[in-house]
Fold each of these.
Amino acid sequence: GDSVTQMEGPVTLSEEAFLTINCTYTATGYPSLFWYVQYPGEGLQLLLKATKADDKGSNKGFEATYRKETTSFHLEKGSVQVSDSAVYFCALRRVGTNAGKSTFGDGTTLTVKP
Amino acid sequence: DAGVTQSPTHLIKTRGQQVTLRCSPKSGHDTVSWYQQALGQGPQFIFQYYEEEERQRGNFPDRFSGHQFPNYSSELNVNALLLGDSALYLCASSLFATVDYEQYFGPGTRLTVT
């Protein structure tokens, strides 16, 4: 079945440091890939997405590129801020009608210190 | 434009009891999916409802059941509660008949079983 593996956390960085959170997936076909962010006590917010190979999703300074050859979708940000502290989830979902469920990784907790 | 809303925010139940959680989808959406997020883990797909029918189901026992109403809102029912059912329950809404739909998540209901 489908699965998503994220780098284990937690990750602690100083403000303005470079961020990489690794994500690899296992799925048949060509799923869409997503990064979600979850702040304490809140639900999930979509951060960015990519729907086909070599697509780059970007939002709020975060980027991730859909790499089919390595089945990866690593999240990057050039300069993190304290406000980026949150839990980040990588997820996949099959495209098309009746696509149904999203499959999530276990999340990576990011703490950014001033 | 109201997003996805869920009620209640928090709930405490005793083992063996039954619970009902509620979700109202984002305006214009017709599909509701439910997820269970245990502490420190990613969300796990429970089931999806469209046109008042369960369309897909994850690996959850029959104690978990749901319903969708004509106005697209949905309920999640859990019978014979176990301690292991303690989790954040997330509702996500989307539009069924689109090739690449986006799911919008609600803030969740925190269920504690004692």
Note: The CA atoms of residues 4 and 25 of chain A lie 4 Å apart.
Amino acid sequence: GAVVSQHPSRVICKSGTSVKIECRSLDFQATTMFWYRQFPKKSLMLMATSNEGSKATYEQGVEKDKFLINHASLTLSTLTVTSAHPEDSSFYICSAKGGWNTEAFFGQGTRLTVV
Amino acid sequence: AQRVTQPEKLLSVFKGAPVELKCNYSYSGSPELFWYVQYSRQRLQLLLRHISRESIKGFTADLNKGETSFHLKKPFAQEEDSAMYYCAPAPQGGSEKLVFGKGTKLTVNP
């Protein structure tokens, strides 16, 4: 199957700083990327959907100014958590799909800890 | 709007027993449904999709339009089947979201 690489896998940052998470499709063109947040023992909560070259579509309750998503190319999307606070600590997961396939491929996730 | 419901948060069976993970959907148009699986410390991955009608790792899932269900079944569970299982409708044009059900944690006991 296709490969999606997410980086970093773990990050610890100080409260008030910003953190950028990258999601790359390594062997296919990702026309659509999804960003999720997973709380402990909970399901994946869709945060936003982004199409290459377009603004991301955020789910209700997700602050777009806090969680900046950029999908500037067909192989890279980034999620920037701005002015991070301890309550932003979570597991963030990206997934990507190409226009030719309805299957989505997932990154390994990023564990963000804000101290 | 596409929506799936997984009524069981936890499911525990013994090795060799049959297992069924339930998924019900509400859908407009023709549904395309997936089961994704997340093993411990691994990334989420596709298990099977209904249009392929495959059996993957002994699992099958039949789309029942009358009952609007897409239950995942395996006749003889194995310990390595222990994982989180998520049902999801495929993102489609005009509604590109990929939204998962709440998931069912399957534990297969020895």
Note: Chain B has a mean pLDDT of 89.
